[in-house]
Amino acid sequence: MSTSNLPPASSIPVATLGARPEVASAIRTLLEPEYDLVHICTNPQTATAELPPLCAGNLSNPETSGLGSNSSRPVSERRVPRAIIFGGAVDDVTLEGVMGAVREAVAAAGEKKEAEGEEGKKEVPVVVRVTRADILAQGVDVPNPEVITKVIMGKCEELKGKGLL
After folding, report:
1. Which long-range contacts (CB under 8 A, 24 or more apart) does 27-35 make?
2. How far apart are CA 94 and CA 75, in angstroms?
3. Pairing of strands 83-86, 35-41
4. How confident is the model at residue 1 (pLDDT cuts 50, 70, 90)?
5. pLDDT tens digits for range 149-161
6. Rounded to the nearest 5 degrees, what angle is found at the Cα of 122, between the Cα atoms of 121 and 127?
7. pLDDT tens for residues 68-98?
8. Angle at which helices 92-115 and 44-55 pack, to 10 degrees?
9. How many whole angstroms from its chain centre is CA 73?
10. Does residue 4 surpass a pLDDT of 70?
11. What is the pLDDT of residues 24-70, one digit of tens each?
12. What is the CATH number of domain 12-161?
């Protein structure tokens, strides 16, 4: 397992739920080196199953898609995302379902650590939502990785400016 071609440790780890694996893979490359797309989910069921434990700090669960950078890392070097990017095909109900499960898992992990006498506070990743309207506003009507990455970067920069990322 080679980790030499991975983003630097100084990059911000993020995860995503998007419908198209080929688009997510291209975005992963375009986000580097500033952002590290550590976990890629391509359907809501996988996101609901995989993102909550990952965000709660359980790094041993495998990534089903095998597309995120954590798939190329040993468990000891895997990273917890600080943001979750939701693609344009993700509706409000799905986003809230995934984030509700993430919030519950993060809270439970924090409570368990506190009960064990350790620092328990964990941060819930921030939401970065890329809507179809965001893409259309860029003059594109199909999933274009370069345009989507530009939108993601803009939204992430805004969150960083607010101290949220």
Report:
1. 27/145, 27/148, 27/149, 27/152, 28/67, 28/68, 28/69, 30/145, 30/146, 30/149, 31/149, 31/152, 31/153, 32/7, 33/7, 33/8, 34/153, 35/7, 35/11, 35/152, 35/153, 35/156
2. 28
3. unpaired
4. very low
5. 999 999 999 999 9
6. 140
7. 999 999 999 999 999 999 998 899 999 999 9
8. 20
9. 16
10. no
11. 999 999 999 999 999 999 999 999 999 999 999 999 988 899 999 99
12. 3.40.50
CA distances 26 to 118, 147, 149, Å, are: 39, 11, 9
In the numeric block, the tokens 């095909």 are attached to 89
Return d(Cα 82, Cα 156) in angstroms, integer. Answer: 11
Mapped onto helix, strand or coil, the DSSP state of residue 123 is coil
Nearest alpha carbon to residue 80 among 68, 91, 89, 88: 68
Q: Whole-model pTM?
A: 0.90
Exposure b/e, 114-145, CB count within 10 A at least 16 = b: eeeeeeeebebbbbbbbeeebbeeeeeeebeb
